[in-house]
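Appendix B.2, paired examples.
Example (i):
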Amino acid sequence: MSEPKFMETVTVRLIAKAAVVICMCMIGQPHVALAKTSQWMTAKEARGWVKREIIRPRLLMKSVRCKYTPGPKGEGRQSTLLKFTYGANPSGKRWRYAWGNRIPFHNRRNVKQGYKMVSNMAFRRPSGLKLGCAVWQR
């Protein structure tokens, strides 16, 4: 007798999860259910990865996270790690991303061109230099 009750509970949970996904899609937020996240990678690795995994398949970059890690050569470019969240792009939105110490400059330029910042993060290296990363969509 415990098996049918167990199956009933599992079925109810699956139906509830499906209902949540359907609701998210109906309110215009399919990215919540369908988004993928990359692993942490250096900026050099990220350049090729973004071209191969996001640009060529015409996916949408949703957010970027960045952090400092001590590198073998000190506080060079490779001491910044990036992690991307991306997903389907059915509406064909355009996007841009940037990282480094010139995020305010990129933001002014992108806003003038009609882009809206959707993700922004910053950190400070031990030397005191403030770096950030951001994503804009249009």
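Example (ii):
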Amino acid sequence: MKNILKKGLLWCLILSVICTIHPVPTDAAVKTTKLKAPVVREWKKTKDSRWPILPADGLEYTVTWKRVAGASGYQAKVEVLDAGEWGPWRIIKTKKCSHSEAGSTVARSKIKVRAYKIVNGKKKYGPWSKIKISRRWG
């Protein structure tokens, strides 16, 4: 009985020495991701027939940004100026490098964008771009 106990303690001691000499990193399976902030271009008027009910002026306003290398998609925050007050930020997730707002009911709009990459099933976000405010429409 004493021999079994001594062998068990000896194996525990050996395992603890091995673990202290060769520690297993907790982030061994985590890839590092370094994403840059997208560069947002100017808002432009574009005509599009995708809208089920056409806006008052028959146009939509589109903003584009440069593609970020290694990004899985983009998260954009859009805020519109309506009746003299900025509304709440709307969060839009997209894999495209553009976003559109419909019609002339919106006086102005602003957007900021960040890229994300999916690493080990979790989204890793890059920094936000600079806010791009549209010129007055209409």
